Amino acid sequence: MDFNLTAEQEMIKKTIREFADAEVAPGALERDRTKQFPADIFKKLGEMGIMGLPFPEEYGGGGADTISFAIVTEELSRACGSTGITYSAHISLGGAPINMFGTEEQKRKYLAPICTGESFGAFGLTEPNAGSDAGGTRTSAKEENGEWVINGSKCFITNASYAKHLALTAVTGQSEEGKEISAIIVPTDAKGFKVIDNYEKMGLHSSNTTELVMEDVRVPTENLLGKRGEGFKQFLITLDGGRIGIGAMAVGIAQAAYDKASQYAKERKQFGKSLSSFQAIQFKLADMALKIELARTMVYKAAWLKDNGKPFTKEAAMCKLYASEICMEVTDQAVQIHGGYGYMKDYHVERYMRDAKLLEIGEGTSEIQRIVIAREIGCS
């Protein structure tokens, strides 16, 4: 087994780490306070060719692998969780379904602008009554005179305010098995399509999280993504890849929290000694470092399996579950090591802790991941 990154992956890691330190991290605290979307950062990432990193070069992508995507997501998240989740969703939820299931024409029309950063990637799945139970989808799409007529709503959708189009799931009919759910590509400037950006969130303040409302939105029937009735199956495949992104995000935020805690422990004096000289603090930092490295290894393994065309559903769920839960734990311990200062915004660690919580919820809660893993190991 070779755990070394390739020369290309090492180059991407070096480039994106330098960019994250110089361009992303300095404004993270202020963006968290003002909730300003980091549009300028993503403009620069687009110029660097990072916005389409894992997609084919013929559509403006970089032709890189999933491990490279995980590296970029981790490094951006280490600097700013909001930037990390924006990028992860752009790739894994916005671009990936079109790349996997789109026709050649759809890829050239809709994937290419995502690759260049002209449009952000977004995916409309979650509804007020259909979160973990996506089979509860109520948004409908009826075929009428060569068009889909779409009605319904979506919630907690990332990047939609900055997306020119997105794929969304809708009920397109009924069968003996139940609802027929399909995926349809919808321009966000279509008549009757409304994006509402007014959530008050716990964390990830400078990422864009929206509601979508569709009232008699009409799109051509050729905007169907993949096969009719396979939207549910497509979104499950999409989420497998997305969970690698969430895992990488979790590793990045946890790494940032560990770095701050380690630095603080070395500098802070108590009872005439640095905090890092006390065994209680040493054990905390050792456990944090251990769990971060394990989580990173699991993320890379899931990404490697995906890149090599092997089944990765179980490993994607495992890496997402473990990384998100240790991220919550590590950020909590980072606040604890900082003591009273950890509760103050200027020390960053309370932001990491707030940002971390979403990772145990988004793209399948921890409970859903355990269901997926149990199914994959033959328990159901």
Automatic annotation (TrEMBL):
Residues 229-377 form the Acyl-CoA dehydrogenase/oxidase C-terminal domain. Residues 6-118 form the Acyl-CoA dehydrogenase/oxidase N-terminal domain. GO terms for molecular function: acyl-CoA dehydrogenase activity; flavin adenine dinucleotide binding. It comes from the Bacteria. The keyword Oxidoreductase applies. Keywords: FAD, Flavoprotein, Oxidoreductase. Gene3D superfamilies: Acyl-CoA dehydrogenase/oxidase, N-terminal domain, Butyryl-CoA Dehydrogenase, subunit A, domain 2, Butyryl-CoA Dehydrogenase, subunit A, domain 3. InterPro entries: Acyl-CoA_DH_CS, Acyl-CoA_Oxase/DH_mid-dom, Acyl-CoA_Oxase/DH_mid-dom_sf, AcylCo_DH-like_C, AcylCo_DH/oxidase_C, AcylCoA_DH/ox_N, AcylCoA_DH/ox_N_sf, AcylCoA_DH/oxidase_NM_dom_sf. It catalyses: a 2,3-saturated acyl-CoA + A = a 2,3-dehydroacyl-CoA + AH2. Its cofactor is FAD. Residues 122-217 form the Acyl-CoA oxidase/dehydrogenase middle domain. Belongs to the acyl-CoA dehydrogenase family. This is Acyl-CoA dehydrogenase. The lineage of its organism: Bacteria, Bacillati, Bacillota, Bacilli, Bacillales.
